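To illustrate the input format used throughout this study, we show a single complete record. The first block contains the structure-token representation of the backbone; no residue identities are included at this stage. The design step must infer an amino acid for every position from geometry alone.
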């Protein structure tokens, strides 16, 4: 397996792999590398490691050299110019009344290109804005619309856990996250508790999803009839993390709740599944409204409302 190092060009940006060549690189070292946009200065995000060849994006370019004092001064000057460019562009946006939220300005290392990142609810006609900026900076101007997750990564912040946002510290790529994951993990459906700083579902819901899916497949489900050492009963609650279940025993003198490990139980029968909704409720009944399906309009409406509520 080839040996690579990870380089990050922004404080909270994506990492890219490079050939370390003969350099002894350490975390945080400033290096000069060649990219598709020309020479650039980046910082080592991960030290040398062996990576399977199928995970490497070709071409694997080598590290050219360590950044010297002149490169570092040039980098600091670039950062200063980016702040000035951001302020000026913000003024231009407000003067033209454009409905866009400017996030960040970024100069290329050679200063030949200036990119502005922004968010907006829809498409924005910024052609006149580009002309204004080009007349001021006398360089190539690009405006790129990004999503709210990328915005949170660029701005940074703290999550509900009190730590730095995952996307700002170690998360390289965003992964799809669904509300189904929150349901399977038994989390509250309160949006403020399962949403991150970007307003989308928290990326960390994906981290332990495989463990929850495995537990759901192995453990009894709520409503199943099981046999435990204390007797026969019905599962009331399931603790996925501790892999314990609470069972209501079927006794003549009254119900009794017992909590045991799931391994001590034997499933006798599963909870009956809910009957499938008729085609009318799913919008798949061609005969509805023509007196051919047997479903009333009122029943279809009620079933549709139930489905909307569940989703």
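Output of the design step:
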């Amino acid at each position: 397996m080839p040996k690579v190092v990870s380089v990050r060009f922004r404080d909270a940006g994506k990492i890219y792999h490079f050939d370390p060549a003969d350099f002894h690189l350490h975390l945080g070292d400033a290096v000069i590398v060649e990219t598709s946009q020309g020479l650039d200065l980046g910082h080592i995000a991960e030290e040398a490691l062996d990576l399977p060849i199928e995970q490497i994006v070709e071409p694997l370019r080598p590290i050219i050299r360590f950044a010297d004092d002149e490169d570092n001064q040039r980098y600091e000057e670039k950062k200063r110019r980016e702040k000035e460019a951001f302020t000026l562009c913000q003024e231009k946006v407000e003067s033209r009344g454009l409905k866009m939220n400017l996030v960040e300005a970024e100069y290329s290392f050679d200063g030949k290109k200036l990119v502005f990142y922004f968010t907006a609810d829809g498409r924005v006609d910024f052609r006149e804005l580009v002309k204004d900026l080009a007349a001021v900076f006398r360089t190539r101007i690009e405006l790129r619309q990004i999503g709210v997750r990328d915005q949170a990564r660029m701005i940074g912040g703290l999550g509900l856990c009190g730590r730095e946002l995952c996307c700002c510290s170690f998360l390289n790529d965003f992964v799809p996250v669904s509300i189904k994951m929150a349901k399977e993990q038994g989390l509250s459906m309160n949006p403020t508790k399962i949403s991150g700083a970007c307003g989308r579902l928290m990326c960390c819901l994906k981290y332990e999803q495989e463990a929850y899916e495995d537990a759901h497949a192995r453990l009894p489900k709520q409503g199943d009839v099981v046999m435990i050492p204390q007797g026969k009963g019905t599962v009331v609650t399931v603790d996925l993390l501790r892999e314990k279940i609470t069972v209501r025993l079927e006794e003549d003198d009254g119900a009794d709740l017992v909590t045991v490990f799931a391994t001590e139980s034997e499933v006798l029968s599963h909870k009956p599944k809910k009957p499938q909704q008729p085609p009318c409720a799913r919008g798949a009944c061609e005969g509805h409204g023509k007196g051919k399906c047997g479903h009333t309009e009122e029943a279809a409406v009620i079933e549709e409302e139930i489905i909307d509520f569940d989703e």
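Structural context for interpreting the output: Residues 296-311 have pLDDT under 50 and may be disordered. The radius of gyration is 29 Å.
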